[in-house]
Design brief:
- The protein has a single domain, classed as Spore Coat Polysaccharide Biosynthesis Protein SpsA, Chain A, CATH 3.90.550.
- Helix content is 41%, strand content 17%.
- The protein has helices at 16-29, 47-54, 71-83, 105-114, 132-151, 178-183, 197-205, 215-218, 228-232, 240-257, 259-263, and strands at residues 6-12, 35-42, 59-63, 90-94, 98-100, 119-123, 173-177, 209-212, 222-224.
- It has a 7-stranded mixed beta sheet, with helices on both faces. Strands 5-9 form a two-stranded antiparallel ribbon.
- Helix 1 (16-29) runs parallel beside helix 2.
- The longest helix has 20 residues, at 132-151.
Length: 270
């Protein structure tokens, strides 16, 4: 049997339903001889942990709760702990609320990173496709702010993609060359920034390119629920309006992907 090409790092925290959907879709749409899945549970203590323990086709790391960690650091530290076990040429960070939807999703990503030897990583900034009217209005607002903020002495403020708010491959879908992470001794959790931000910057500073796949293209291969863990757990102080809106969006995606059928298909766990 050939060795796996890609190790998938999958942090988990208290999302029983979407964790099951995520892993069953991975199993359904992937030749599992090509991947090594490492799930890292951040002290969930719930049904999602019990589910992960029941799966023989993945590797599970159970991390104890650490009082000095924010949720963001807990996530990035989980990725780093799993990264120590990676032996494959490529490593892919994913979220439990990232759902693959086609059998060729892995080939799509690997073909992208193999297309240029100088590419260190490929993936996504935000995996969302808004209606064209909203995109147009957002673009107009962005252009105006890019002109106005420097004019009044605010620099670029907090404009997305400017200054310290540079775009980077987000951990919901980011495929890297393992040897480069090792070569430069990089970590997902460098500093207190979100997972992968500093690593992205340092790979670029070392002369490598990073490829952002347009959402309009990537959405054909996978969907990202975005902040599902926060919406589904009341311990995160999310405004009720935003929580309801997020859960409604999740349910629409569930219906589109026919997840109820998937949740009843236990053979995908074997």
């Amino acid at each position: 049997m050939p060795s796996p090409e890609v190790t998938i790092l999958l942090p988990n925290y208290k999302t029983p339903e979407i964790t099951k959907i995520c892993l069953r879709l991975l199993r359904k749409h992937t030749d599992t001889s090509r991947i090594h899945v490492i799930a890292i549970d951040n002290d969930s203590g719930d049904e999602s942990l019990e589910y992960l323990r029941s799966l023989s086709w993945i590797e599970l790391i159970e991390r104890p709760k650490r009082d000095d960690e924010t949720p963001s650091l807990s996530h990035s530290h989980a990725l780093d702990e799993a990264m120590e076990r990676v032996t494959t040429p490529y490593v892919l960070s994913m979220h439990t609320d990232t759902f693959v939807r086609r059998d060729d999703w892995l080939d799509f990503l690997i073909d992208k990173i193999k297309s240029d030897k100088n590419l260190a990583g490929v993936g996504s900034w935000k995996l969302e496709v808004k209606p064209w009217v909203k995109r147009l209005l957002k673009r107009i607002e962005y252009k105006w702010q890019s002109f106005y903020f420097p004019l009044v002495g605010k620099g670029y403020g907090k404009l997305e993609g400017k200054g310290d708010n540079f775009l980077y491959l987000r951990s919901h879908c980011a495929l890297y060359r393992t040897d480069l992470i090792r070569k430069y001794d990089l970590k997902f959790s460098q500093g207190n920034d979100t997972a992968g931000k500093v690593m992205h910057k340092m790979l670029v500073e070392h002369g490598h390119d990073m490829l952002f796949i347009p959402s309009e293209e990537l959405i054909h291969y996978m969907v990202h629920l975005n902040h599902a863990t926060m919406f589904l757990n009341e311990e995160f102080n999310i405004r009720q309006y935003n929580r309801n809106k997020g859960i409604s969006r999740m349910r629409r995606i569930f219906n589109k992907l026919k997840t109820q059928e998937l949740l009843q298909d236990d053979h995908l766990d074997k």
